[in-house]
Automatic annotation (TrEMBL):
This is Chromate transporter. Its main location: membrane. It holds the Pfam family Chromate_transp. InterPro entries: Chr_Tranpt_l_chain (IPR014047), Chromate_transpt (IPR003370). It is a multi-pass membrane protein. One of its GO terms (cellular component) is plasma membrane. Belongs to the chromate ion transporter (CHR) (TC 2.A.51) family. The lineage of its organism: Bacteria, Bacillati, Bacillota, Bacilli, Bacillales. It is found in: Cell membrane. GO terms for molecular function: chromate transmembrane transporter activity.
Amino acid sequence: MTVELTKQPNKGNLAEVFLTALKLGLTSFGGPTAHIGYFRDEYVIRKKWLNEHSFADLVALCQFLPGPASSQLGMAIGIRRAGLFGAFAAWIGFTMPSALLMLMFALTSSGADVSQAGWLQGLKLAAVAIVGLAVWSMGRSMAAGPIRGTLAIGSAAAASFIPGAGGQLVPLLVCAIVGLIAFRSSEREEASALETKSNLVGSNIDKPISFRAAWLSLFIFVLLLIFLPIAAHLSGSPLWSLADRAYRAGSLVFGGGHAILPMLEQEVVGVGAGKTTTESFTAGYGAVQAMPGPLFTFAAYIGASMAAGFKGILYGTVALISIFLPSFLLLTGALPFWSSLRRNRSAQAALMGVNAAIVGILLAALYNPIWYDTVRSTSHFIIVLLIFLLLHIWKRQPWQAVLVAALAGWLIL
């Protein structure tokens, strides 16, 4: 089958990437799984910077890497749109609103707990509708047919049954193997050709990162894992110690912001320099649930809560950069290899299985923790239906639905 490729438009600029990510950073509530729904709506449906399959491929890559998957996904899209500096623009835009709010909360609060506020519950309910719509829409294109549909449902069951990061990695690996066996056919060749036609929609970047830059990123990643503990030990500085602990947390934890909490609590709660109290830690965790953007900005709060004034801002900034830096290094180290691998016919077949697994993993996350922890009454369910109506029937933008949900939660709950 011959497919005539369309002429690719010019790549985007950094301002465009930053402003789009900033919009998401101001409106994306509900945690990393919900962020995928927001990202899909903005980057795939509205901006058309990439298509469903390319989006799912990047989601799969970020699921395999440790660190905050949604932030890595935003960085990857920024790279494809505007090159390496596009990753910085996307990260700053998506992270800055939540990070600034968490810094302010640490420097001005007295440990207030906002986790039970009605408007916050409304924001969580908006995330339920957004993720539900994303699962439905992605499933129609990436889990169509009996084989892929079965893989998606099986992945949802496995992700629900297997605890921790294994609930994501096992379905991804199994579905990749099944896809490799099942989809190396003429049908897949046709799908591949159609995908190639729109694979780089919105970008003329074929190889945004060289293999040399990728190897350098991986070298720096390993070097910092070795150097930071030594620097912290030899200097005795709380600042170096904070950087070391935050960097290790961002390097070694799978599963997003919630999964990183036990490691952070073990590292930073206690008595002495470079430590914070249990009460302060708990208050910060409650506050970060109310913030849009990545949960990893909790690190900014932890750092800022260890000191006052300018020193607190410095500590918060160091913790924030240290916890996100591994994500950037690992992504830039893996992306060129992933881009080359996915052009291979066998890899494309495996990715069909992986994409179906992504739908299943999102479906499992929609049930637990998103639905299970959020929808607890008839009023909650009605608000979810209202937001779904706004998004799916009335085609309102997510930020408008978020405002309605927050208002409904404040008035009703």
